[in-house]
Amino acid sequence: MKHRTLHCLSGALLLAASSLAIAQYMWLDDKGVKQLSDRPPPPSVPEQRILKAPGKAPFNPNAAAPAEAEAPAADAATPDAPPAKRPPTLAERNADFNKRKADAAAADKKAAAEAQQKADIAANCDAARKNQQALADGLRLSNYDKNGERGIMGDEERAEMAKKNQKVLAGCK
């Protein structure tokens, strides 16, 4: 019997000691995110944002906050004072997150379009350089007429093609 009582007492002692490891402080940081810790919040956290602390009544979301109850009196005393800023709600934080996500997606899409446009311009410039080199080397070049028949370029056509290539190459770096 004595042995069993000793086991029960040691179990109760371990159970009581383990409750000390539970987070004892709860507060909202600057972004409105709930922080849990076994250490007190930093001194920069205002008292209104500390939700749970030893010796303080637990946070009740349905009860009116003391700052909200005193707000009309403070506004009457100083009408030009700014209203107290409340932490953002979950819906506001979610809307802000979705907005940032959409903005990032739009920026990524724009960057991809610009990269594709630069790649297309580089490919066109490369093709124009190759055509200009072929025209300058005096190679026999052929082309197709409107009926789809192949013919060899004459000197006038080569000169016209060289002018077009020069215009394209003028826009290249």
From TrEMBL:
Full protein name: DUF4124 domain-containing protein
Domain of life from the UniProt record: Bacteria
Biased composition (Basic and acidic residues): 93-112
Signal peptide residue numbers: 1-23
Signal listed as a keyword: yes
Biased composition regions of type Low complexity, renumbered to the chain: 53-79
Keyword annotations of the record: Signal
Disordered: annotated segments: 35-119
Provenance organism: Rugamonas rivuli
